[in-house]
Amino acid sequence: MPNFDGGHYFLTALAPVSPQILREGDQPPQACIQILRETLACLPTARQSPSSEAGTLNSPFARNHRTHFARFVVLEDVVDNGRDPTDALKTAITNTNLAIPQPTDHLKTPYLLFVADLDAASGDESELRGYLTELWADMETELRAVFRHCIGFESVTDARGFADYIVRCQIETTMPFNDYWIGVPPLQDFNRAALLAPIALPGGVAALSGVFWLLGNFGLHLGDALVSLLGANGAWPWGWISVVAAAVTSAAGYGLYRFILQRGNQPLPTAPDSDLPSVLKALYLQQRLTRFAIDQQGADAASLYHAFGEFLARHRPDDLEHATQAPGVIRS
Description:
By secondary structure, the protein is an alpha+beta fold. It folds into three domains: 4-169, no CATH class; 192-264, no CATH class; 279-332, no CATH class. The chain is 45% helix and 10% strand. It has helices at residues 32-42, 88-94, 125-147, 159-169, 192-217, 222-229, 238-264, 276-295, 301-315, and strands at residues 4-5, 8-16, 21-22, 30-31, 67-75, 111-119. Strands 1-2-6-5 form a four-stranded antiparallel beta sheet, covered by helices on one side.
């Protein structure tokens, strides 16, 4: 489930940019894509670098306390990665002219790429819609300024309409970014013998029955002789037994394949304290504790004990709402 993993939803949406030429006020006519680029260029970024933290503006996404990362990108066309890889020997044998270009993909219109990594309890669409509704309440003005240049956005009038629009533009996220696990996640382990037994048992029967059938064709009825030792007489249809056992083996193998795919598509469990409020609190405490450790160098045990008590009372490690770092800044 690439859209959801480790307690986070990974949104990827492509909104087609309008090809229209607009005239706004006394400005000369401009293409929608150019106005969109200028709008994005003027959109404040997060204050997460020494060059930007001195400013007073912050990213509008910082108003939302579920957004870990967000980005807008204008895609005018897809990148050509060159020729498809082929076997050199096959190319030489077929005398393929490598100077003749292969067909390449192109976008029919530019697209606005909107990606976001957000806190979510599940990968249900309701989680995404709830986030988009919150985002509209937090930054409606900025969202209108950006998406008004996209095809179909003219029908959006409220938060529900915005959520509907983004869901229509959504594509599957194939490479989610999630690195909050610092140890091995508590994944469920499986007994390999129990998994392989439904395949190994009928597979063994199919192989053994096939051997008995081949030997019987040469007059060596070894299978019937072995069965007679168990008290069952008569000729056995070893060929048909082998075919049926092989069919059961194939069905069991396909079932195991589907089971592995289904288990592989399940998201990782949520890492402890990986929601945005907890991450911001951790960043705040990291800075405060570093300064505390520096200031307490050489202090005696009693002074250190008293100072640490004051540290806990002032910074309240268990309180995520107060004494924490604000979103979108590099330090607190």
